[in-house]
Amino acid sequence: MKLTAYLKHLIDNRVYRLIDLSNLSGVYLSDLSRILNGKRLCGAGTLAKLLKVLPDEHQTQFLMLWLQDQVPEGFGDKVHIVPASAHLRSEDSIDVGTFEGSIEFLTRLSGRNNSVRSLLMFLASHHKPEAQTP
């Protein structure tokens, strides 16, 4: 499970101690230990308690991994769960599957993102149009 692996990573790298997570969240230490050892799944209630005590940088990752764990095996290709910041906003939804759609999306995005603007400027300055035949 992805959430369990992430929790193990945080504990192993001493970002958190299990006892501290338990005390802060109100989740029993034994329950956290079972989740960490893969003997119990993290339920929605436990997740909610943990999210309340985690800083923003870990909240997003915890929630995203928990949601990914909820997708039944063999159906991962049916959904794509990523942080909200990686999604297009509804007013930006265009067909990015086409070249024109991709360029339009990047152009819109460049208004809000200096890195994308710089990339587009670089590409434009290095573009060599093909010679047109009469």
Which secondary-structure class do the elements indicate? mainly alpha
Strand content: under 5%
Q: How many domains is the backbone divided into? A: 2
Helix content: 55-70%
Give the overall form. Answer: elongated
Mean pLDDT: 77
- Tell me the Rg in angstroms: 22 Å
CATH class type of the largest domain: Mainly Alpha
* CATH architecture annotation of the largest domain: Orthogonal Bundle
SSE series: HHHHHHH
Q: What is the CA-CA span between the terminal residues?
A: 62 Å
What are the key terms here?
single chain; 434 Repressor (Amino-terminal Domain); 134 residues; 2 domains; 57% helix
Task: State the gist of this model.
By secondary structure, the protein is mainly α. It has helices at residues 2-12, 18-25, 29-36, 44-53, 56-69, 99-110, 114-126. The chain is elongated.
Chain-wise SSE layout:
Elements: H1 2-12, H2 18-25, H3 29-36, H4 44-53, H5 56-69, H6 99-110, H7 114-126
Helix pairs in contact: 1-5, 4-5, 6-7
Characterise the protein shown here.
This protein has seven helices and no strands. It is an all-alpha fold and 134 residues long. The chain has two domains: 2-69, 434 Repressor (Amino-terminal Domain) (Orthogonal Bundle); 88-126, no CATH class. Helix 4 (44-53) packs antiparallel against helix 5 and helix 6 crosses helix 7 (114-126). 8% of the residues are buried.
